[in-house]
UniProtKB/TrEMBL annotation:
Residues 1-59 form the RNA-binding S4 domain. This is Pseudouridine synthase. InterPro entries: PsdUridine_s_RsuA/RluB/E/F_cat, PsdUridine_synth_cat_dom_sf, PsdUridine_synth_RsuA/RluA, PsdUridine_synth_RsuA/RluB/E/F, PsdUridine_synth_RsuA/RluB_CS, RsuA_PseudoU_synthase, S4_RNA-bd, S4_RNA-bd_sf. It comes from Sporosarcina oncorhynchi. Its EC number is 5.4.99.-. Belongs to the pseudouridine synthase RsuA family. GO terms for molecular function: isomerase activity. Keywords: Isomerase, RNA-binding. It is an enzyme of class 5 (isomerase).
Length: 233
């Protein structure tokens, strides 16, 4: 990789700014100052330093966010704040994107990465990656609803869903449930409950595949995945 691209990709300025640093002799490769921006480095084996500090090469980033309400799951939007707007510059320069979508009014686990291959694996319908949600439901949720969800329900557009596992935590005028599904159709959880005559009034995603929401993260906060979590994915 070109040296100026390497340093810029790791967040140390634009290509133009990096060329200025090179001219000053601030960047060294394996202990030797390099001023040629077109100099090529082996990003995994060469040691590149800026003012004596080693630059650690990273190709991918993996972030777990506790998405708040009012923020949309997109990379950019003309009207609303996006989940990418919540990130520090040190992560934004990697050009990450959310893995799948959570509705604007839905909270919970959102994975943000720039790893396209992993994203495809997690979102592919063939993989049937389970996603578990916690919800408050307006209306008394019954075992009959659980049985219907276990068989699949017909949505308002005629689509017949794959089976969902509905666990009733509290059955009352405002019920509390956990629902695990392996699809990600538009507004799917809300539409599944509409199919049985009930309304979702609060929705939070708790897990996606083996990844569980870190409850120590406050709404809007995020952290890098651990090596163990990345390995599980």
């Amino acid at each position: 990789m070109r040296l100026d691209k390497f340093v810029s990709n790791m967040g140390f300025g634009s290509r133009k700014e990096v060329k200025g640093l090179l001219k000053k002799g601030a960047i060294a490769v394996n202990g030797k100052p390099v001023k040629d921006s077109s100099f090529h480095v082996d990003e995994k084996n060469d040691e590149v330093t800026l003012f004596g500090e080693k630059i650690v090469y990273r190709e991918f980033i993996y972030l777990m966010m506790h998405k708040p309400q009012g923020v949309i799951s997109a990379t950019e939007d003309n009207r609303d704040r996006t989940v990418i707007d919540l990130l520090e510059d040190e992560y934004r320069h990697f050009e990450p994107f959310p893995v799948g979508r959570l509705d604007k009014d839905t909270e919970g686990l959102l994975l943000i990465t720039n790893d396209g291959k992993l994203t495809h694996e997690l979102l592919s319908p063939k993989k049937e990656v389970p996603k578990m949600y916690f919800a408050h439901i307006e209306g008394v949720v019954t075992e009959d609803d659980s049985k219907r969800f276990a068989q699949g329900v017909t949505l308002d557009d005629g689509y017949f869903t794959k089976p969902g596992q509905l666990r009733i935590l509290k059955s009352d005028e405002i019920s509390e449930i956990e629902l695990t599904i392996t699809e990600g159709k538009f507004h799917q959880v809300k539409r599944m409950f509409e199919a049985v005559g009930k309304k979702v009034i609060y929705l939070k995603r708790m897990s996606m595949g083996p990844l569980k929401l870190d409850e120590s993260l406050q709404l809007g906060e995020y952290r890098e995945l651990t090596e163990e979590e990345i390995a599980m994915l």
